[in-house]
Design a protein that fits this description.
Blueprint: H1 21-24, E1 34-36, E2 41-43, H2 45-53, E3 62-64, E4 95-97, E5 102-104, H3 106-112, E6 119-120, H4 121-124, H5 132-229, H6 234-261, H7 273-280, E7 292-294, E8 303-305, E9 313-321, E10 333-339, E11 343-348, E12 353-358, E13 363-369, E14 373-381, E15 384-390, E16 393-398, E17 404-409, E18 415-421, E19 424-429, E20 434-437, E21 443-447, E22 462-468, E23 471-478, E24 483-487, E25 493-497, E26 505-511, E27 514-519, E28 524-529, E29 535-539, E30 548-554, E31 559-564, E32 575-582
Antiparallel strand pairs: 1-2, 1-3, 4-5, 4-6, 7-8, 9-32, 10-11, 11-12, 12-13, 14-15, 15-16, 16-17, 18-19, 19-20, 20-21, 22-23, 23-24, 24-25, 26-27, 27-28, 28-29, 30-31, 31-32
Amino acid sequence: MEVPGKKLQLRTSAVDTTYCQPCSQDGETLAAEAFCTVCNEFLCSNCASVHKKLKMTRSHALLDKSNMPTSMSSQDDNDEYIEPCEIHKKEFIKYFCPTHQTLNCGHCAVQNHRSCHVDVISDISKAFKDGPEYSDIDNAIAKLFKDIDKCASDVEKNKTLIAEMGESEVSKLRRCRDEVNKYFDERENALLKIIEQMKNIDKALLDNLRPKCDNLKAKVKEIKNNLKTQEKNTIQLFIEAKRAKQLLEITQTALAEINRQNTIHQYRFKIDSATERLMESNTGLGVVEEEVIDTQNALGTQISSFVDLTKLMFIRTASIPVKFTIDTKVCIISSMLLLPINRLLLADWNNKTLKLVDLQTSSMVSHVSMPGQPWGMCLIQGDRVAVTMSRSGIQFLETQGQLILSDSILVDGDCRGIANHDGSLIVSYFFGKVEILDMKGDVIRKIEKNIKGQQVFLCPLHIIVVKESQTSFAYVSDPRNNTITMLDMDLNILQTFRDSAWKRPRGLSVFANQLIFCGDESNNIMRMDMSSGKMSQLLGEDDGIQEPEYCVYSPHQKKLYVTCNNRQHNDENNSIKVYNAIQ
């Protein structure tokens, strides 16, 4: 009985024609409608149906006409399939699905790619080696080899760099220490010389006075003996006594002169206050500042530089609440001060409170009530801080552990900004002057007007001292003047900065030769390169900045902290805005 199906004439090129192989055993040439991936045979529709019913073959995977091989010749390459399927361990990978970009065995093709056009790898692989995809892969491998070699080379260069950098910085440290030792040796020798000179002067004087005392004593002894010998001769005793009286007066005068000259230098060694501060400092001799090494700059050379804040992306994260339950008013955080051990000190002007935040936990850990409204803050030494209080002077406090108030000093005026420089305080006042004070509050120097008699500042709210190389400078923000002014340590004006990018500058802080400040009316956080004066915006209104008061960057936390004095939305002032810095 014939198996239904269209008969095909067997051509001489039958090897390239798909027909039912079981039927061909009976001399039938029927068109193939399926392909068994296990038996590696083409099947007509009837044979395929039987194949699915027989117990021995019903588990075989069959490819339909759209997915089966295009010719019988492709089945002669079975010996080339050697990659086993990860899912069906007894099957080889023979098919590729372009839709899903997967390599499949026959079972995978039937089970997961029935609706896909699946290619037979033996068909499409013949021209693959000479095609563009293989060429791209080959080129990618070559490039990857090159990139890996370059990376390995850069690693070796960096190993050399860190060795050279370590030697260089240790050498600088040792030279600095040698210079310090030399300086103190010279100072010690100079002081020893002064002491020796004083000692020699006093010794020479005393060596000169002692023989005079002995000489006077001999004269008095002689006078006494002369009187003794004349005691039996009253006339001669009288004469000798009168003569002795004159000699005694002369001797007493000489003794008085010896007593007058018998004075020595009173001296004591007093340690220099700058040396005391140096020994109390945690940064004596110097500090090791971490730098970021950019090994892939535009020129392809190795350079080192501090982190450029303009190269960072600042992403808003959870704010830090700063309002205590005892606070009766909206918070106005007028300034912030980074303290050792990841702590941030806040001056709440409106609630007359200083607050301490642990930056690792982003929570307040301590607070202390102030006798006035705190505005500006600066570190004095170690954990000691000086705080200006509007119309109430300057308050000192200790910040190690709990916040503890210490002594205070009175000043002449409504003080605002404050900075420390070599044991002196530089203070700005609300009504336009800047003064240098000693630690007792005595004025050393001040500036109110320029040489033309004009007012220099209208409202200098914040001040910060920056050390560049071996020289220190003070920067003063004046929102009413819309200026930031640079002063030397004699309060001479060196430069005045204005820029249309910001309005009403307020809080100032410094990171790695970069001045960071707030634009109150322009609603932005600005950065100025202090070496070039170039201005750049770090954050603006789109980042949630509204009437910012103070900002500070923590390199340890890699975060920028911002306080605002938002007059329209007061609730926003009760927290610190936090921005993660991402490179």
